[in-house]
Amino acid sequence: TGTITLNDRSVALSGTSAQINTALSGTIAVGYTGNVTITDATNVAHLKAINAKTSGSITLSNDTAKQGALSGSADDLVLAFAGSITEPYVGNITITDAASLSELKFINAAGNGSIVLDSVTSNLQGSSEDLAAAFTGTVTTYQGNLLATSVSTLVNAGVINGATTGTATFAISDLSETLNGAVGNTTSLNAMKAAT
């Protein structure tokens, strides 16, 4: 229960998620700066705790480590992916509560798998770039209203318009780009029709 003093605070650690979490638990004097390699499927609690204990990089060393499903609150998932994780997470991620736009954007950028939203009815607003980044990829269809506070490119408008069954409010920039890009593209044509 005392303080742990490391003679070499930068020593690298490698092991299972549980082993590294246990090794870094407790009170470490000054702070650990070493790189960490996780060799098995982790969970949100372990990844959050490990991230909080090192300023070094975190490497998910194999497919098992990178592909396990993660589930947790938006706040915990943001903390789990904070810091320097060397590769995008490719497992599916479930957000169990209502995520803010910034949280959803951050979590989406951290992974390449699908994002499952347990809560889909809150209204979200922000720049067209942030809204598009939050809903790019495979994300549960949203039901709340989405409001873009900046003018959108045609590509971003297509993402925003297709992200929700609620009301998506956005304006599209650059008429020449819009007309050229929309030809033969159903997503773009639908976005043009829905634009304000």
Please give a handful of descriptors for the protein shown.
196 residues; 17% strand; 38% helix; alpha/beta; 9 helices; four-stranded parallel sheet; 12 strands; three-stranded parallel sheet
Detailed description of the structure:
With 196 residues, this protein is an alpha/beta fold. Helices cover 38% and strands 17% of the residues. The protein contains nine helices and twelve strands. The longest helix is centred in the first third of the chain and has 10 residues, at 44-53.
Termini Cα gap = 61 Å
Low-confidence stretches: none
Q: What structural class do you assign from the helix and strand content?
A: alpha/beta
Question: With helices defined by DSSP (H or I, 4 residues minimum), what is the helix count?
Answer: 9
Share of residues in strands = 15-25%
Q: If strands are numbered along the chain, what order do they take across the biggest sheet?
A: 2-4-5-7
| C-alpha Rg (nearest Å) | 20 Å
Order of helices and strands: EEHEEHEHEHEEHEEHEHEHH
Helix content percent band: 25-40%
Overall mean pLDDT stands at 88
Say how many strands there are.
Answer: 12
Largest beta-sheet details: 4 strands, parallel
Shape: elongated
Summed up:
Helices cover 38% and strands 17% of the residues.
Helix and strand layout, with pairings?
Elements: E1 3-4, E2 13-15, H1 17-24, E3 27-28, E4 36-38, H2 44-53, E5 57-60, H3 63-67, E6 70-72, H4 74-80, E7 84-85, E8 93-95, H5 101-110, E9 115-117, E10 124-126, H6 128-135, E11 146-148, H7 154-163, E12 168-169, H8 175-182, H9 186-194
Parallel strand pairs: 1-3, 2-4, 4-5, 5-7, 6-8, 8-9, 10-11, 11-12
